[in-house]
Amino acid sequence: MLLAPFNHLLAQQVGLRNQMAEHAGQVVVLVASPIELCFKVAEDGFLQQATPPADTTLRFHISLLPRLALKDEAAYRDIVVEGDTALGAEIGKLLKGLRWDAEEDLSRLVGDVLAHRLTQWGAGLFGPQGEFAFRLARQYTEHWTEEAPLLAKQHDVASFLAAVDVIRDDVDRAEKRLERLTALLKPPAER
């Protein structure tokens, strides 16, 4: 079910689907905890449901999804590739190239003329001339983080996550030390 949007976009982009087909048979896992999506590239370039083990795994924090959807180049650097890194980089590049042909999909619902006008309107609102909407959203975000703090500041969240990582690592080290000490305290016959 989660693969349907990817396959829909691949159906709209034959060239990209052909590039994906070059990796037929490869199993990939996308992990944006708690979401985990495991798929296999089919001979025709579409994606099929699969189960691990994977040839490559792409891991990222779920908070990156909006930035990835907006093609924020800095967000791609936060993706961790495990396993076959060359395959992971190639699959990441292909997924990054997916584009939605909204006008094509809308034309099936409302007709070609209205679909064209709606996409023009959307491009005006969210495209290059949509900078007003972007600035307004940025102003509200700044207001909610600085003046009426409903949202956490990005550096505060980063600091918190770094502190959690340090504590997690400290706990892991303490558990290993405890295991070693417990093993040393056991009588030689039980070791």
From TrEMBL:
Q: Where in the cell is it found?
A: Cytoplasm
Keywords assigned: Cytoplasm, Ubiquinone, Ubiquinone biosynthesis
Q: What is its main location?
A: cytoplasm
UniProt-recorded name of the protein: Ubiquinone biosynthesis accessory factor UbiJ
Family indicated by similarity: Belongs to the UbiJ family.
What functional role does this protein have?
Answer: Required for ubiquinone (coenzyme Q) biosynthesis. Binds hydrophobic ubiquinone biosynthetic intermediates via its SCP2 domain and is essential for the stability of the Ubi complex. May constitute a docking platform where Ubi enzymes assemble and access their SCP2-bound polyprenyl substrates.
The record's HAMAP family line, in alphabetical order, gives:
UbiJ
Q: Enumerate the InterPro entries for this protein.
A: UbiJ
GO CC annotations?
cytoplasm
Superkingdom of this protein's organism:
Bacteria
> What does the record give as its pathway?
Cofactor biosynthesis; ubiquinone biosynthesis
The UniProt entry's GO biological process terms, in alphabetical order, are:
ubiquinone biosynthetic process
Q: Give the PANTHER family listed for this entry.
A: UBIQUINONE BIOSYNTHESIS ACCESSORY FACTOR UBIJ (PTHR38693:SF1), UBIQUINONE BIOSYNTHESIS PROTEIN UBIJ (PTHR38693)
